[in-house]
Design brief:
about 150 residues; alpha+beta; 434 Repressor (Amino-terminal Domain); 2 domains; 3-stranded antiparallel sheet; two-stranded antiparallel sheet; 5 strands; about 35% helix; elongated
Amino acid sequence: MQCEMCGSDGQLFRVDIEGSVLIVCKSCASFGKILGSASPKPAPKRAAQKPVLRREELTEYIRSDYGRVIKEARERKGLKQKDMAERISEKESLIHKMESGHFEPNHELARKLERFLNISLIEQFSSDEDLKVSHVQGSELTIGDKVRIRKRG
Protein backbone atom coordinates (compact mmCIF):
# COMPACT_ATOMS: atom_id res chain seq x y z
CA MET A 1 0.00 0.00 0.00
CA GLN A 2 1.03 3.61 -0.58
CA CYS A 3 0.34 6.89 1.17
CA GLU A 4 -2.87 8.37 -0.25
CA MET A 5 -1.43 11.90 -0.08
CA CYS A 6 2.16 11.64 -1.32
CA GLY A 7 2.35 8.09 -2.69
CA SER A 8 5.36 6.99 -0.61
CA ASP A 9 5.79 3.46 0.71
CA GLY A 10 6.52 2.56 4.31
CA GLN A 11 4.65 2.40 7.59
CA LEU A 12 1.12 3.72 7.09
CA PHE A 13 -1.44 5.11 9.51
CA ARG A 14 -5.19 5.73 9.46
CA VAL A 15 -5.47 9.52 9.99
CA ASP A 16 -8.42 11.91 10.26
CA ILE A 17 -7.45 14.90 8.09
CA GLU A 18 -10.08 17.64 7.98
CA GLY A 19 -12.93 15.17 8.45
CA SER A 20 -11.69 12.52 6.00
CA VAL A 21 -10.03 9.29 7.07
CA LEU A 22 -6.99 8.63 4.89
CA ILE A 23 -4.22 6.05 4.88
CA VAL A 24 -1.00 8.11 4.98
CA CYS A 25 2.70 7.86 5.79
CA LYS A 26 4.32 9.15 8.98
CA SER A 27 5.22 12.56 7.53
CA CYS A 28 1.72 13.15 6.11
CA ALA A 29 0.14 11.98 9.38
CA SER A 30 1.24 15.28 10.94
CA PHE A 31 -1.57 16.97 9.00
CA GLY A 32 -4.28 15.30 11.07
CA LYS A 33 -5.17 13.10 14.03
CA ILE A 34 -3.75 9.57 13.99
CA LEU A 35 -6.49 6.97 14.51
CA GLY A 36 -4.24 3.90 14.38
CA SER A 37 -1.93 1.99 12.13
CA ALA A 38 -3.16 0.77 8.78
CA SER A 39 -2.89 -2.93 8.19
CA PRO A 40 -2.30 -3.89 4.59
CA LYS A 41 -5.38 -5.34 2.96
CA PRO A 42 -4.94 -8.54 1.00
CA ALA A 43 -5.33 -7.97 -2.71
CA PRO A 44 -8.79 -9.04 -3.82
CA LYS A 45 -8.89 -12.00 -6.16
CA ARG A 46 -10.22 -11.03 -9.53
CA ALA A 47 -11.86 -13.27 -12.03
CA ALA A 48 -10.86 -12.86 -15.65
CA GLN A 49 -13.08 -10.16 -17.07
CA LYS A 50 -13.50 -8.56 -20.41
CA PRO A 51 -12.01 -5.08 -20.62
CA VAL A 52 -14.55 -2.43 -19.73
CA LEU A 53 -14.76 0.63 -21.93
CA ARG A 54 -14.78 3.69 -19.74
CA ARG A 55 -16.44 6.87 -20.76
CA GLU A 56 -13.90 9.68 -20.95
CA GLU A 57 -14.55 12.20 -18.21
CA LEU A 58 -13.55 15.80 -18.88
CA THR A 59 -12.80 18.25 -16.10
CA GLU A 60 -12.78 21.99 -16.73
CA TYR A 61 -10.73 24.55 -14.84
CA ILE A 62 -9.67 28.17 -15.20
CA ARG A 63 -6.09 28.43 -16.46
CA SER A 64 -3.61 29.59 -13.82
CA ASP A 65 -2.38 32.66 -15.76
CA TYR A 66 -5.90 34.06 -16.30
CA GLY A 67 -4.97 37.54 -15.02
CA ARG A 68 -2.16 38.06 -17.53
CA VAL A 69 -4.26 36.66 -20.40
CA ILE A 70 -7.22 38.97 -19.62
CA LYS A 71 -5.01 42.05 -19.29
CA GLU A 72 -3.09 41.40 -22.52
CA ALA A 73 -6.31 40.78 -24.48
CA ARG A 74 -7.92 43.95 -23.10
CA GLU A 75 -4.85 46.00 -24.00
CA ARG A 76 -4.78 44.51 -27.53
CA LYS A 77 -8.34 45.80 -27.95
CA GLY A 78 -7.13 49.22 -26.78
CA LEU A 79 -9.55 49.35 -23.85
CA LYS A 80 -9.10 50.70 -20.35
CA GLN A 81 -10.43 48.65 -17.44
CA LYS A 82 -13.32 51.08 -17.03
CA ASP A 83 -14.32 50.84 -20.71
CA MET A 84 -14.21 47.05 -20.73
CA ALA A 85 -16.22 46.88 -17.49
CA GLU A 86 -18.96 49.03 -19.01
CA ARG A 87 -19.08 46.97 -22.22
CA ILE A 88 -19.44 43.63 -20.42
CA SER A 89 -21.68 45.01 -17.63
CA GLU A 90 -19.29 44.29 -14.78
CA LYS A 91 -17.60 46.50 -12.19
CA GLU A 92 -14.22 48.07 -12.92
CA SER A 93 -12.93 46.82 -9.56
CA LEU A 94 -13.76 43.25 -10.59
CA ILE A 95 -11.72 43.64 -13.80
CA HIS A 96 -8.81 45.01 -11.75
CA LYS A 97 -8.98 42.13 -9.25
CA MET A 98 -9.04 39.52 -12.03
CA GLU A 99 -6.10 41.08 -13.87
CA SER A 100 -4.05 41.27 -10.67
CA GLY A 101 -4.84 37.61 -9.90
CA HIS A 102 -6.77 38.34 -6.69
CA PHE A 103 -10.11 37.06 -8.03
CA GLU A 104 -10.55 33.96 -10.17
CA PRO A 105 -13.62 34.29 -12.40
CA ASN A 106 -16.31 31.64 -12.18
CA HIS A 107 -17.08 29.63 -15.31
CA GLU A 108 -19.97 31.88 -16.35
CA LEU A 109 -17.84 35.05 -16.15
CA ALA A 110 -14.89 33.28 -17.78
CA ARG A 111 -17.12 32.32 -20.76
CA LYS A 112 -18.30 35.94 -21.03
CA LEU A 113 -14.69 37.17 -21.07
CA GLU A 114 -13.71 34.50 -23.61
CA ARG A 115 -16.43 35.68 -26.01
CA PHE A 116 -15.73 39.38 -25.54
CA LEU A 117 -11.92 39.22 -25.66
CA ASN A 118 -11.67 36.25 -28.05
CA ILE A 119 -9.40 34.32 -25.66
CA SER A 120 -9.35 30.92 -23.96
CA LEU A 121 -9.57 30.90 -20.15
CA ILE A 122 -11.23 27.54 -19.49
CA GLU A 123 -9.18 24.44 -20.18
CA GLN A 124 -10.16 20.80 -20.09
CA PHE A 125 -8.31 17.65 -19.24
CA SER A 126 -9.41 14.08 -19.37
CA SER A 127 -9.19 11.91 -16.28
CA ASP A 128 -8.26 9.03 -18.60
CA GLU A 129 -5.26 11.06 -19.82
CA ASP A 130 -4.26 11.63 -16.20
CA LEU A 131 -4.20 7.92 -15.52
CA LYS A 132 -2.03 7.29 -18.59
CA VAL A 133 0.44 9.98 -17.53
CA SER A 134 0.91 9.19 -13.86
CA HIS A 135 -0.65 5.81 -13.14
CA VAL A 136 1.84 3.05 -12.51
CA GLN A 137 0.65 -0.52 -12.98
CA GLY A 138 -0.47 -1.92 -9.64
CA SER A 139 -0.63 1.39 -7.77
CA GLU A 140 -3.46 3.75 -7.02
CA LEU A 141 -3.75 7.38 -8.08
CA THR A 142 -2.94 9.61 -5.07
CA ILE A 143 -4.01 13.14 -4.19
CA GLY A 144 -0.42 14.22 -4.94
CA ASP A 145 -0.75 12.81 -8.48
CA LYS A 146 -3.90 14.87 -9.03
CA VAL A 147 -2.15 18.04 -7.77
CA ARG A 148 0.82 17.48 -10.13
CA ILE A 149 -1.57 16.91 -13.04
CA ARG A 150 -3.52 20.11 -12.32
CA LYS A 151 -0.31 22.17 -11.97
CA ARG A 152 0.95 20.83 -15.31
CA GLY A 153 -2.15 22.17 -17.11
